[in-house]
Structures are given as C-alpha cells and as structure tokens.
Amino acid sequence: MKKIIIIRVCEIFLKGKNRFYFLKLLEDHIEMALSPYSHELEKSQMRYIVTNFSDGDFDKIIGALKKVSGIHTLSPGYSVESDVDKISDCAVKAMEEKRGFFKVETNRADKRFPLHSVELSAKVGGDILSAYPNVFTVKVKNPELVLNIDIRENGVTLIYTDVIKGMGGIPIGSSGHGFLMLSGGIDSPVAGYMMCKRGMRLSGVHFHSYPYTGEAAKQKVIELAENLSQYSCGMKLYIVKFTEIQEAIHKFCSEEFMITMMRRFMMRITERLALKFGGQAIITGESLGQVASQTVESITSSNSVVKMPVFRPLIAFDKLDTIEIAQKIGTYDTSILPYEDCCTVFLPKYPVIKPKMEKVLKEESKLDVEGLIENALNQIEVVEA
Amino acid sequence: MIYLDNAATTKPLEKALEAAEVYLKEEYFNPSALYLVGLKVKESEQNAKKTILSRFPLGYDLIFTSCGSEADNTAIFSFCKRGNAVTTLGEHSAVYECFNKLKISGYDARFAKLNKDGSVNEESLLSLVDENTVFVSIVHVNNETGAVNDIDRLAEVVKKKNPSVIFHSDGVQAFGKIPEKISSKIDLYSISAHKINGVKGIGALVKKKGVNISPLIYGGGQEDGLRSGTENVFGIISFSVATEECFKEIESNYLKVDRVKRKFKEIVSVDGVRFFAENSSPYILSFSAVGLRGEVIQHMMEDYGVIIGTGSACSSKKRHSRILFCSGFDNKTLDGALRVSFSRFTTEEEAIFAAEKLKECILRLKGVMRV
Question: Which of helix, strand or coil describes residue A97?
C-alpha cells in the first residue's frame, strides 16, 4: 500500500486530434511543478498518478498541482495490489480520520477480479463499519463521503475519498504568449491568471515612474509576477521607466487627458515589447466602467493605437468577483499594499470619461510620441520572475 | 547621505560596537556557565545593567528583552488578566496591537482619545480609569508626532483615582533624549538600544522593585526567570555604552537638537505645510505637505541623498497613520504626512541643506499635482 495522488485532466481538449500535443504540454507543466520534490509520475489513461513522494511534501505537492492549468481534479489516496483482503485493509486505513454517512463505490475495470463491484463494495463497507464502530453509517443516496475503489487492469487498485478541484482550463503554452500590463493593483494579476487558465503563457509589463512610485512598489509588482510565474511556467517582467512620458504629458497636454494619454502610451509600449519578444496578444485587467479610463470610449481610445488583439478577461467582472479570485490565487494581500502607484500623483481632478477621438489626437499632437517611446524602450529593465 | 529617520533607528556608535565586539570574538562564553570565563561575562553583563539602571531612580531593576516591543508585550500580558486596562489611541503598535488582541479575546481593554498633537487627552484618560482598572500604559514620546506626554503627572492623577494601578510607559523614543529622569510613580518603562545608537536586537523592561511581572518566554530561567534565553551579551554591552554616551551631555544635546529642529522647521514652513505637534520632542518633527504624497517626497529627497520618514517605519504597510487619523486629521493631510527625526549628531548645516531640498521637493510636487 502506498500513498498516491491521482490527477485527472480536463477532458474537453482530449477529444480532438491535438490530444497528444495538449497532453505533452500538461505533462511538462506537471513535471515542472513537481520538480522541487522527489516523486514519480505514472501516466495512465486520461489521468496521471504521482507516487513515491515524501509525506512531508504532500501539502506542497497538492499546492503546486493546483496551479497547473488543464488539471480538472486531484485525489489523494492509496494504491494497493488488487487482492480482496489488501483492498479492504487499505480502505479501512483510508477512512481512519473520516466519519459520518458514507458509501463505497467500486469501479472494476479488471474483469478478472474475483468479486463483482457490488459484492466488493458490500464487503469493504462491512469491514469499515466493524473497524470503527459507531463512527460511520451507510447511506447510499446522497452520502457525505464516498470511498472509491478503482480496480485497474494492471493488477493495481486505487483507493481514495477526497476530490480536490484543480485549476481547470487548458495546458499552459497551448494558447500562445500574452503580454500582461501589470500595475500592482488587484485586477491585473487576476487577468493574468485567467489567461494562464486558458493556456496563455505570460510576460509582464510594468510602468514605473520613480520618484512618483518607489522601490517598494516595484518590489510589490515583482512579487506579483513571481506568483503568476507559477501558473505561467515562468515569466519575464519588463519594467518600463515611465517618468519622462508622464512628465511630458503633464507639461504639454490638458490635465483631463492625462490618464487617456498615459493609457495610449502604455498600450503602444506593451505592443512593441510583445512584437520584439514573441508576444501575440496584450492582456489588461480592465473592467468596463470601473474607472474613468475603463469606459467604452476610453477603451476605444487606448485600443486604437495597437493592432494586436487585446484580451480583457475581467471586462464584465464585478470588483468583488475579482477580489475573490485574487484571494484564491494569493495575489490580494500583495496587491493591497499601500505604495503609491504610477497614476495617483498625476490623477487629474476631473479626468475625461468619454474622450472624443479628435480631441485625443489633438492633445497627442503636442508630444513627440515616437521619441518618448524610443527613450522608454531603450531603458527597459528585465526581471526573471 | 544625510540620515533624518532616527526615530526609526540610529547609526550604531563606533565605541559601542568596539566594546561589544569583544563579546562576539573573544568573550563569547555563556554568562550562565559556572566556569570562570563564563562568570566574567556575567559580571560584565551585570555592570552593563547597573550602567543603564543608574539613569533611573533608586529602587528599579530591569530585564533585558530582544527589543522594545517585547518589553511592552511583557508588561502588558503580565497584568491584563482581570479587571480592565487603559491605553491610548496614540501608542506605538507594540502596545496598541496587544490591547487590540486583548479586546478581541474578550478582555476589557480601553483606549483613551488623543489631542490634536497626538498626546493623550487627559479627560478621556481619566474617564476610562475606574476602581477595576489594573493597568495603564501611556507612551512617553509619541513615535510619530513627537508629542511628549507628561507621564509623571499622568501617573499621579491616574493613581489618585485608583492607587492600585500599575503604570507602564513605552519610553523608547524618550530614553536618552529627554533629560528629565522618570519619577518613582512609573512602575514599568520600556527602552530600546537601537534608538540611541546601540545595536538592534536588544531592549529592556525597567521595573520598580516589587512589581511582579510574569515571563513571556520560558526556558532556562535567565533574568531571574522572567526572560529565558541565553543573554545577548553583545547587545547588552552595546546598550550600556550607548546609554553612557547619550547621557553624557543629554541636556546640551537636547538644546542643540532643538535648535536644529527649529531651523529646519523655519525653512520648510511654506504654504500648505502643516505641523502636527507644536510642543514636541526636539528629536522628531512631524508634518504634512497637505494634498501631496509623503511617499513621493520621500523618494525625491532620496535622490538628493537625504533620508526622511513618512511616519512610523513599523507601520509602513498601512496606508495612513493610525495615530494621525485618531488625532483627527483628514485624508489630504494624512496623504502628505512626513516625519523628520534628528539625532544628536545631526549638524545645523545638514538640517539646512535637507530642509532647503525638502522645500524644493514640496514646491516641485505641488506643480505636478496642481495643489
């Protein structure tokens, strides 16, 4: 009897001819997630089984697997030789810390096994009841707990009770490479996570404007990138010096267009970086109507300066929904650290909410757009998160 | 570099480091050991203790702790078990968070209101003290505004209302800086070495003899069983040398730093700058560039090689200062909060340079933020 973790993959993508391509990506990501821990990974039909890991690493392994996109569910359990008594002993052990209404469910893929499914379930259920008197009650309809016995064709039986939800989605790398505009707020890391879930590898772009934002704010964004990196199978963070651009906009353009102009510069710079470093899309954490720069008119204005597709996975999210995910993925506590971000100092009293394109272009004509972008691109700092 | 965040920590004195180094390199023996070299270390430690205690009235003792926060925690958790306890909204988080913890666990922990300068409002304080009050804790010098609480007088009025109260004060920003000795009305007093040019990792809880505290840390029974753990001899020696040095000319240093502060204040007194405490410790100048962002000014100053604070370094992960908020300031004032804190080594030239630059930064940022 040994401890195992069963990994079930999301099945939707397994149906096409690309199945092996997806599985290879998934397997690579699983191996990468488990690389810090000693283990073996067995491949079986539609699932993977982690074995030979140390007990002390168990929680960390589960934690790492929950960050692998394409995994549907995980089940910690045991594997044992397909022998009636051994299966029963193992099942009793698996129920050691459980209690309540339960049932046993057997899946007998190995038709050579001497007992039928129902017979084995009945025997194991009986053994559990006698091993732990007054702890369990059998309940076949809507039990609190199901003990699963999976008799496989290779002479091994898997036994488990818990089913832990995985990240879902499709394997990382299967949907290309996106450049995430990472501000340090709550939304952008969640947007990055959502795209990872759909298989998109990430690079991050952060706009830093010292002295209006400090080293602590930069470290905070690096920390967020390090978190996202676990979902993205590694991630580069491009830190753009934005001060000169902000000061130029502030000096030459109307105050109310400050944020509109900034967004247009950010989009252009992100696209240039993406084109240079193999990105195929821009990702932002925008949510429709959340702030002045996220109205449909503002988004139209910032979107119009790029040709690349812009993915906005949070566009229809309420803030509370986003916060819930941020808490789940562990970025929330970092995001709410109160360091200045690059917009607060330059925030106009009355930002334009529905910018008109001709006015935007008129304001922008006061700036040496190309020169400013060139300068910013020449001073990029790259951090391997 | 001009370092003006001395309320956060200070540069260790060369002399303190030299004296202490011996106990890292040569006299590294355990002071609790019974062999001769160990006993010699014990003796040095005891002498260091005496040096620090000589700055207090007769009849006091102390236990060494790892920091001022541990001293505060030890004092509070020794007594806040029954009845009620009173502190202020203007305490350092090492006291404030202990009281919060007690309150959450159901204990009757009370918080007195503040005056505008961050000092405790006496009326509010006295209204909270009653016949069931067992413990009162009031900071001596407020770490953010520099406001000085007259703890001797406060202890007197509190004890007049309830003589059985144990009176504690966090003296971390006062010890070695405010010349007046505390009086015997104070039962417990927390101090820390790194605020007076000693090293980090060593503090002490000074206690009146006969006041029985209980340990936070159990083990080998060091410090009369009140604080177990092998003594930090290196830190203790540095603490004693730092104490000796800062008390040598404490009065004249006080006046000198006061002049430095006045000069600084005079220069930065531009339109839109609001000072938090008029009568405060000369070592701390706390103010707001109203409507601007303190953190941005801090970064701008860093470019000139001047280090200043935005408030308590111990609470830098919180957006606004609790103490200033509780003193009744609005968000615009809290956003622009800055703390400049001097040491006895700060020269007038340094202060003038820093203040001129600060004025420049404030005016520059005003232009950007259109305040």
Answer: coil
Instruction: List the end-to-end C-alpha distance of chain A, in Å, as a whole number.
Output: 39
- Give the architecture-level CATH label for domain B14-247: 3-Layer(aba) Sandwich (3.40)
Do the beta carbons of residue B135 and residue B87 sit within 8 Å?
A: no
User: Pairing relation of β-strands A201-208 and A310-311?
Assistant: unpaired
Fold of A2-165: VC0802-like (3.30.2130)
* Domain B2-9+250-369: CATH superfamily, name plus number: Aspartate Aminotransferase, domain 1 (3.90.1150.10)
CATH class of the domain comprising A177-384? alpha beta
Per DSSP, A182 falls in state -
Q: Which two tokens stand for residue B72?
A: 């505060």
DSSP B55-88: TS-SSEEEEEESSHHHHHHHHHHHHTTSSEEEEE
Q: Domain ranges in chain B?
A: 2-9+250-369, 14-247
Residues of A in contact with B369 (CB under 8 A): 345-346
pTM of the model: 0.81
Q: In whole angstroms, what is the distance from residue A285 CA to residue A269 CA?
A: 17
Instruction: Name the strand (E) or helix (H) holding A236.
Output: strand A236-241
Q: Give the three-state DSSP class for A61.
A: helix
Domain ranges across chain A? 2-165, 177-384
- Tens digit of pLDDT at every position of chain A (385 positions): 899 999 999 876 667 788 888 989 999 999 999 999 999 999 887 789 999 999 999 999 999 999 999 999 999 999 999 999 999 999 999 999 999 999 999 999 999 999 999 999 999 999 999 999 999 999 999 999 999 999 998 899 999 999 999 999 999 999 999 999 999 999 999 999 999 999 999 999 999 999 888 888 899 999 999 999 999 999 999 999 999 999 999 999 998 999 999 999 999 999 999 999 999 999 999 999 988 889 999 999 999 999 999 999 999 999 999 999 999 999 999 998 877 776 678 888 888 989 999 999 999 999 999 999 999 999 999 999 8
Q: Which structure tokens are listed for A182?
A: 């990472």
> What tokens does A148 get?
């699963």
Most B CBs within 10 A among A250, A340, A347, A349, hence the mutation to make, goes to A340
List the beta strands (DSSP E) in chain B: 2-4, 60-65, 84-88, 108-112, 133-137, 166-170, 188-192, 203-208, 273-275, 284-289, 306-308, 337-341
Query: How far is C-alpha B32 from the geometric centre of its chain's CA atoms?
Result: 30
Q: At how many degrees (to 10) do helices B348-369 and B294-303 cross?
A: 130
Q: Is the ipTM beyond the 0.90 threshold?
A: no
Among B residues 289-308, those touching chain A with beta carbons less than 8 Å apart: 293, 295-296, 298-300, 302-303
Task: Tokens for B328, please give them.
Answer: 């009744």
- Chain A closest-CA separation from residue B363 CA (Å): 14
* Total residues belonging to chain B: 371
B332 contacts: CB under 8 Å, gap ≥ 6:
B290, B291
Question: Is B296's CB within 8 Å of A340's CB?
Answer: yes
Active site residues of B: 314
Q: From the list B293, B298, B302, which residue is nearest A344 (CB)?
A: B293
Tell me the Cα Rg of chain A: 26
If one counts every other C-beta atom within 10 angstroms of the C-beta of residue B353, the result is 16
Q: Phi and psi for A110 in degrees, rounded to 5?
A: -85, 100
Q: How far apart are CA A205 and CA B279, in angstroms?
A: 48
Contact indicator for A273, A205 with CB cutoff of 8 Å? yes
